[in-house]
Specification:
The structure is a single chain. Helices cover 8% and strands 20% of the residues. It is mostly beta strands. The protein has a domain at 105-250: Immunoglobulin-like. The protein has helices spanning 2-5, 7-17, 169-174, and strands at residues 72-73, 80-81, 105-111, 123-128, 134-135, 140-143, 148-150, 156-157, 162-166, 182-185, 206-210, 213-218, 232-234, 248-250.
C-alpha cells in the first residue's frame, strides 16, 4: 500500500507532523516543472499581456489590421455608425419614359375657331396609342406659319390617355374645358399675336415634332368653312391620317352646357 501511495503518503505525513489537516489533493495532477506555474494567456481576450494584464492604449499607427472596417464616428451625435457604401449597380427606380416614335402619339382633335376669346381658348388634343407612358418634354409644337414652341420639363402622357395642350389655362377654363384633361399650356405669358397660333384660314395646320421628325400632324386649313364654335376630330385614330381631310369630322355636340362643340380629353364622337 505504501508503495503505491509514494510521494502522496510522504506529503500526508509531513502535514500530520505539522499538526494541520492535509489540503485537498488532486490525484494525478502532480507538477514536475516549476515553469508550469506561470499563468497562461487566453488568446481570445484582446488587449492583454502575457500575465493577462491590460495592455496600454495604442495609437492608430500601432493598431493591428484585423481586416474588418472600423465604424465611423458621427461628429454630431458621438455614436459609432458603420459607413454604408451604395451599390453602384443598384436599381434606382424606373427609367425616364421615352419620347414617342412617329404615330405613337397622335393629334386627334383641334379647337382652332372657338366662340370664346382667341387665341386663349384654342387647344390641341393628343392621344397616346403606345402601351406605356411617353414623355413630351423637348418636343416641338409647330403651327402652319412655322411658329414653334418647345414643350417644357416634366410633361408626360399615360398609355391610352387623351389630353390637351392649351394656349391658355385661363382661356380653357373660360371655355368650360375640364381642368382634369389639361396637360400643358404652351402660350404662357405671350401676347395674342405671339407664339403658336391655330389659324382659321387655308394655312391652318399644327404638328408635333421630335427634332426634324414629325410625330403627328393635322393639316386642317380650308376643310371646313362653317367651323366656328366646333372642333375638328380625327375619325380614324391611326398613323398617317392627319393630313387626309376625309379622316376628320366636324364636332356636333357640346361637351358642357353653353360650351363649344367637341370632346376635349375624350374619344371622338364622329358620326
Amino acid at each position: 500500500m505504501a508503495r503505491f501511495l509514494g510521494p502522496l503518503a510522504t506529503a500526508g505525513a509531513v502535514a500530520f507532523a505539522l499538526g494541520g489537516a492535509l489540503s485537498p489533493i488532486v490525484v494525478g495532477c502532480a507538477m514536475s516543472d516549476p515553469a508550469d506555474l506561470s499563468p497562461s494567456v487566453d488568446p481570445s481576450l484582446p488587449g492583454l499581456d502575457a500575465s493577462n494584464n491590460p495592455l496600454p492604449a495604442m495609437g492608430d499607427a500601432a493598431r493591428p489590421d484585423t481586416g474588418s472596417p472600423e465604424p465611423v464616428e458621427d461628429a454630431g451625435s458621438g455614436d459609432a455608425t458603420p459607413t454604408i457604401v451604395a451599390d453602384a449597380g443598384a436599381d434606382t427606380g424606373p427609367a425616364t419614359a421615352p419620347k414617342p416614335a412617329p404615330g405613337e402619339v397622335l393629334i386627334t382633335e383641334v379647337m382652332y375657331d372657338s366662340l370664346g376669346p382667341e387665341p386663349g381658348s384654342e387647344w390641341i388634343e393628343i392621344h397616346n396609342k403606345a402601351t406605356s407612358e411617353r414623355t413630351l418634354t423637348g418636343l416641338t409644337i409647330k403651327d402652319g406659319a412655322n411658329r414653334t414652341h418647345t414643350i417644357g420639363a416634366g410633361v408626360k402622357i399615360a398609355a391610352g390617355a387623351y389630353a390637351l395642350l392649351v394656349r391658355s389655362k385661363t382661356g380653357a377654363a373660360t371655355a368650360k374645358v375640364p381642368a382634369s384633361v389639361v396637360l400643358y399650356e404652351y402660350g404662357t405669358g405671350l401676347p395674342d399675336t405671339g407664339g403658336v397660333l391655330l389659324a382659321n384660314g387655308a394655312n391652318g395646320a399644327v404638328s408635333l415634332l421630335n427634332g426634324p421628325v414629325a410625330i403627328t400632324s393635322a393639316q386642317y386649313g380650308g376643310w371646313y368653312s362653317q367651323s366656328g364654335g366646333s372642333s375638328v376630330q380625327l375619325k380614324v385614330v391611326s398613323d398617317g391620317q392627319g393630313a387626309t381631310p376625309a379622316s376628320w369630322c366636324l364636332s356636333l355636340n357640346a361637351w358642357a352646357t353653353g360650351s363649344d362643340k367637341g370632346t376635349p380629353g375624350a374619344p371622338q364622337d364622329c358620326p
